[in-house]
From TrEMBL, chain A:
Pfam families: Actin. CDD domains: ASKHA_NBD_Arp4_ACTL6-like. PANTHER family: ACTIN. GO terms for molecular function: transferase activity. This is NuA4 histone acetyltransferase subunit. The lineage of its organism: Eukaryota, Fungi, Dikarya, Ascomycota, Pezizomycotina.
TrEMBL record, chain B:
The gene is DMAP1. Keywords: Chromatin regulator, Methyltransferase, Nucleus, Transcription, Transcription regulation, Transferase. One of its GO terms (cellular component) is Swr1 complex. It is found in: Nucleus. It comes from the Eukaryota. GO terms for biological process: chromatin remodeling; DNA repair; methylation; negative regulation of transcription by RNA polymerase II. Residues 506-515, 528-547, 558-611 have a biased composition (Acidic residues). This is SWR1-complex protein 4. Residues 485-495, 516-527 have a biased composition (Basic and acidic residues). The keyword Transferase applies.
Length: 478, 648
């Protein structure tokens, strides 16, 4: 009885400062878009930022867009895959992004109907519905987020007009009563309970360093490079194609059946055949390969934890590469049943390029990274832009976030590299041991922020938006 | 066995009467979780219906001992907002504890549910509990007039000051952020005509310290404007005091130091720690060590050549120690003794830490630096890559040509530099150095200091040379003067015009001037000072002769030659430095020249009486004084420079 009562009693608001107003938090990334209610500890809706496109046969101009894990992984005839985000970590295709986000929010979170199918373009628009009728319908329709304030995240280098698009969509298309735009670096720092931190976010498309001071990013100190998850995937592709014999990556959708084979033996599987003209676009295969590679990254790839770099020498005089050869390998089975023990050197090699540009594999399509793009170089160039007094403090509060930081040994290695680069300063890392916290760091920070009572006064309300226009974002969300 | 199977066996109609059977069914038995499977139950209750049809019944509502209080989505406003945004949160219906926690607005907060959509609604709603956390820094307020009278600053326009003050208020005086976001762009000047480009004065780069200094200045002054110092409360006064005492330069220096501290390498850090530890160890054990040493001396017997004192003060300097060691070595003492000696030498080096660059000292340093070297350094295997700073520190050079002299110690270079060909010269150099208060043994003979020291010595050598020359010339001039006077006296006596000697001199000199090469010409210009032209020319003649002879003599002494050249260059440099000051001097020089001509004119035309006799001698005295002045200024200049170098 007593316990029953306790569970229904809200925690004392004075204790944690929370005051939830059913706000939504939307955190778009290159690989996935995360959405959920503020105050929860994981996003309820995780949707790939990739979307499928199926060209309509009758009118080639019209294409059908597919959103969500359930639809974009099916090899529908002539399906191609695109991404709403650019390689830069900023939104590229705003129209589709708005639809994708709406899908992410309405499919799982709000029970309001999504905007009518006719106007949201989710279905085939070859019916002859006159424009004016649909417009009337839209006017009457309740806007999908009429009740929920929305907190959106953006990257630290998002600037100019791109910052205003978010509020336009939220206010005009979705009818949000209030809106806020927050930097994902700041939110990741909040998720670790730090108002001042150096946030290292290693996502899919970019690795970014964001110095945060008292909840505000230091713009000049934001640095980034493309040596993130996709880079590691490409390293793996290079590694596979350069091994003897080359290792093919056969995605799941191509396999109809398989029989187990011994390690190293050729795969025995029957492959799916597509009728001519119905093959999926190469981008579909690439996307599916990426899924296999993510699996490989999760289970096989490891970071060399020293001492020294993989390309360096050990204290005994031998090379570290030789030392690495002695380490145990790890088995991995491809979707077609082909499997092998992957030697430790390969496991280390795939990610070493993030720390040591000289160790990165390259070919014509994958130019070698420059020395300034490695994590350590990014961090030092970021720090050099920051006030001297703040530097030791930042180095003592390094927050690591992003799913691509989940490789075993990543934190140790970074700690070593930084301590060597700044011997006079105590370098301390804050890296959550929970996969979800690492993966959704910035979303969780947004969830915390949007559920704080003190945050109520910060929201940009619809009224303010109507008064000042979308430029208000630049003024308020600093 | 299922009931239906049984019926099949018995041939009963399959459209069995489940309905009829229903009443027989014992509900609780079916419903109750007996833990038996249905088949077992079937066996137990024969004739049990194949399917038990149970009217669905929900679980009873629990009878709770308290009345449930529903939650409701309550709208609320926030007085910290000006736009009356109404948000909703879930609250217990009629929750008093919550309502009490809220600072209730004049209207009753419980009537909130009847809110209207109009503006006023916000005020009748419960105010957010959090509104009171909305605090802002006070922005320094000033009117345009006040700005003009009190706050003007050439470096800061009013617009930029306003921008700064706004930014500071926006970011609540988080200076790191303010400095990061500071993007003041001066307004474009209105175009005068179409063609002219819009003139935008370039934005001045502002450091965080500049911004702080300006802001504190403005804030402190406005504070006084609004509230004179006398009526300030103590906290206000403190704030004012702090703001007026802010020193941006001090801050900048501090930051520079902080940066250096941060950029220390591992080796440097370890070395520093090691030295500190060593120092504290020495300080702690001083007494003991002294005693031990004394005991050791007593045991060894006092080495010859060492005065019979028990004071160990003389071994505190590395010189003393070297001597001592030599003595000991000469006595061919055992290895063990040597070892102790070395330890003592380390002690000595600590005793006067910035002690000269003696070999012992060096060894000690090396051993300290060598410790951490052996440790594995991260990032590179094998030989460590030195950073540019470290290379400078360790004096690593990458000469393009082969080094001719081989390995050299810096102290050797120093002693060599101080020595001249003749002993007199050497002692003079020594005297000059003492005059400049530069110790014969440099305190910090870093590579940089040593090169500068060498340059200084070279300059001193030239200076001495020049001084010697000028003295010689002075003497000569005096002789000529005397002759001239004699001649004049004779002339006056004989009424015969006699100009030959001076004329001859003039001609001679002119001829020589022609011979001067370009370099000398340059030099003349540079050196044209208040000195007599004659002096200069003579000097130059000699110099150029010397050069020529050097060249002719197959550069047998390349070093000196190079040194001379260096000297000249340096002197020129210095002269350039001093150009501003010298402008009037040069003018004077010319005047002097004229005077000389006039002298001759006088000599020619007018009769000369004894009283006015000495325009020449006056000129001479001024000349020599000028020379003295000049050499003094050169000395002071050099010493300034060198002391700067030393400090560096
Ligand atoms: N367990 C794992 N180990 C290593 N890498 C992983 C793991 N799980 C996912 N990844 C990789 O992490 C990347 C996705 O990371 P994350 O979700 O942080 O990126 P994002 O936020 O969507 O992208 P971005 O920050 O670049 O916009 C993908 O490249 C994926 O392959
Ligand atoms: Mg991300």
């Amino acid at each position: 009885m007593a316990t029953g009562q306790a569970s229904t009693k809200p925690p004392d608001a004075n204790e944690y400062g929370g005051d939830e107003i059913s706000a939504l938090v939307l955190d778009p990334g290159y690989s996935t878009t995360r959405a959920g209610f503020a105050g929860e500890d994981v996003p309820k809706s995780i949707v790939p930022s990739y979307y499928g496109l199926i060209p309509s046969e009758s009118t080639p101009k019209h294409t059908k867009q597919l959103f969500g894990d359930n639809s974009i992984n099916i090899p529908l005839p002539r399906i191609s895959i695109s991404n709403v985000m650019s390689k830069d970590g900023t939104v590229e295709d705003w129209d589709t992004a708005a639809k994708l986000w709406e899908y992410a929010i309405t499919s799982r979170l709000t029970n309001t109907k999504p905007t009518p199918l006719v106007s949201n373009g989710l279905n085939d628009p070859n019916e002859d519905i006159t424009e004016d009728i649909t417009m009337e319908g839209v006017e009457e329709q309740e806007k999908p987020l009429g009740e929920n304030p929305l907190l959106m995240t953006e990257s630290g280098w998002n600037a100019g007009k791109d910052r205003e698009k978010g509020i336009e969509i939220a206010m005009e298309n979705w009818g949000c009563p209030a809106f806020w735009l927050a930097r994902n670096g700041v939110l990741a720092a909040f998720a670790s309970g730090k108002p001042t931190a150096l946030v290292i976010d290693i996502g899919a498309s970019t690795i970014s360093i964001t110095p945060v001071h008292d909840g505000l990013i230091l713009k000049k100190g934001v640095t980034r490079s493309p040596l993130a998850g996709n880079f590691v995937s490409n390293q793996l592709r290079l590694l596979f194609s350069s091994s003897q014999p080359p290792i093919p990556i056969t995605p799941h959708y191509l396999i109809t059946s398989k029989t187990p084979v011994d390690a190293g033996a050729p795969a025995q599987a029957t492959y799916r055949a597509f009728a001519p003209g119905t093959e999926p676009h190469p981008s579909f295969r690439h996307f599916q390969e990426e899924r296999v590679l993510t699996e490989f990254k999760e289970s096989v790839v490891n970071v060399w934890t020293g001492p020294g770099r993989l390309g360096g020498h050990s204290a005994q005089g031998g090379t570290n590469m030789d030392a690495a050869r002695q380490h145990p390998g790890k088995p991995f089975e491809m979707p077609d049943g082909w499997n092998q023990m992957f030697p430790a050197l390969d496991r280390y090699r795939a990610i070493e390029g993030i720390f040591d540009h000289k160790m990165a594999l390259s070919d014509a399509n994958n130019p070698p990274p420059s020395p300034g793009q490695t994590v350590t170089a990014l961090i030092s160039s970021s720090l050099s832009q920051v006030d001297v007094d703040l530097r030791p403090h930042l180095l003592g509060n390094i927050v690591i976030t992003g799913a691509s930081s989940w490789y075993a040994g990543f934190t140790d290695r970074l700690q070593q590299e930084l301590q060597a680069a700044y011997p006079g300063v105590r370098v301390r890392m804050v890296a959550s041991g929970q996969m979800v916290e690492r993966k959704f760091g910035s979303w969780i920070g947004g969830s915390i922020l949007a559920s704080l009572g003190t945050f109520h006064q910060l929201w940009i309300s619809k009224k303010e938006y109507d008064e000042h226009g979308s430029g208000i974002v630049e003024k308020r969300c600093k | 066995m299922m009931g239906s199977d049984a019926r099949d066996v018995l041939g009963l109609p399959s459209a069995g009467p489940p309905k009829a059977a229903t009443p027989k069914v014992q509900k609780p038995k079916v419903r109750g979780p007996t833990g038996m499977s249905r088949e077992v139950l079937d066996l137990k209750y024969e004739g049990a219906p194949p399917i038990s049809i149970v009217a669905p019944k929900f679980k009873e509502k629990p009878k709770l001992p308290f009345k449930p209080r529903p939650w409701e989505e309550t709208p609320f406003g926030n007085s910290a907002r000006k736009d009356g945004l109404i948000l909703r949160h879930w609250r217990r219906k009629g929750d008093v504890s919550n309502a009490a926690a809220l600072p209730v607005t004049p209207a009753d907060s419980n009537t909130a549910s009847e809110m209207e959509q109009d503006e006023k609604a916000a005020t009748t709603l419960s105010d957010s509990h959090w509104a009171r956390f909305n605090v802002k820094v006070a922005r320094p307020q000033y009117t345009d007039e006040q700005y003009e009278t009190h706050l003007r600053n050439e470096d800061w326009s009013k617009e930029e000051t306003d921008y700064l003050v706004d930014l500071a208020a926006d970011f609540d005086l988080r200076w790191v952020v303010i400095a990061d976001r500071y993007e003041y762009q001066p307004k474009e000047q209105p175009k005068e005509n179409e063609d002219s480009m819009a003139v935008t004065p370039p934005a001045k780069p502002r450091t965080q310290e500049d911004m702080k200094a300006r802001y504190y200045d403005v804030a402190a002054k406005t504070m006084v404007l609004h509230n004179p110092l006398s009526s300030m409360s103590s906290s206000e006064f403190d704030a004012h005091e702090k703001m007026t005492k802010y020193d941006p330069n001090q801050e900048k220096k501090r930051k520079m130091c902080a940066e250096q501290l941060m950029n220390r390498t591992d080796e440097e850090k370890n070395e520093e720690e090691m030295l500190l530890r060593e120092l504290s160890r020495i300080v702690l054990n001083q007494e003991k060590l002294f005693n031990e040493r004394k005991a050791l001396y007593d045991r060894l017997g006092i080495p010859p050549g060492v005065p019979q004192t028990h004071s160990t003060a003389m071994y505190q300097s590395s010189q003393g120690l070297t001597q001592l060691m030599q003595n000991l070595l000469a006595q061919n003492k055992s290895k063990e003794l040597e070892k102790k000696e070395k330890r003592r030498s380390a002690m000595g080096a600590e005793g006067d830490f910035p002690g000269g660059p003696s070999g012992l000292d060096r060894g000690q340093r090396h051993s300290i630096g060598g410790g951490p070297d052996k440790r594995f350094s991260f990032g590179q295997g094998g030989p460590r890559q030195l950073s540019a700073r470290e290379e400078q520190k360790y004096g690593v050079s990458h000469p393009n040509e082969r080094l001719t002299g081989g390995v050299q110690f810096r102290h050797e270079r120093i002693t060599k530099a101080g020595q001249a060909k003749s002993g007199v010269q050497t002692s003079r150099i020594g005297a000059a150095l003492t005059e400049l208060r530069i110790p014969p043994r440099l305190t910090m003979p870093t590579a940089k200091v040593v090169t500068e020291y060498e340059r200084l010595i070279e300059s001193i050598k030239t200076l001495l040379e020049v001084r010697k020359l000028s003295e010689k010339l002075d003497g000569e001039i005096k002789v000529w003067q005397a002759q001239k006077e004699q001649q004049e006296a004779k002339d006056r006596g004989e009424e015969v015009k006699e100009e030959e000697p001076s004329q001859a001199v003039e001609n001679e000199e002119e001829d020589e001037t022609k011979e001067l090469d370009e370099q000398a010409e340059r030099r003349r210009k540079a050196e044209a000072e208040d000195d007599d032209e004659d002096d200069e020319k003579e000097e130059e003649k000699e110099d150029s002769d010397e050069d020529a002879s050097l060249k002719g003599s197959h550069k047998d002494d390349e070093d000196t030659f190079a040194g001379d050249q260096d000297d000249e260059e340096e002197e020129e440099e210095e002269d350039e430095d001093e150009e501003d000051e010298e402008m009037p001097d040069e003018a004077e020089g010319e005047v002097d020249d004229d005077e000389n001509d006039a002298d001759e004119g006088n000599a020619n035309g007018e009769n000369e009486d004894e009283g006015a006799s000495s325009p020449a001698s006056v000129a001479h005295t001024t000349r020599s004084e000028g020379l003295r002045k000049r050499s003094a200024s050169v000395i002071s200049h050099i010493s300034n420079k060198s002391s700067k170098r030393q400090r560096r």
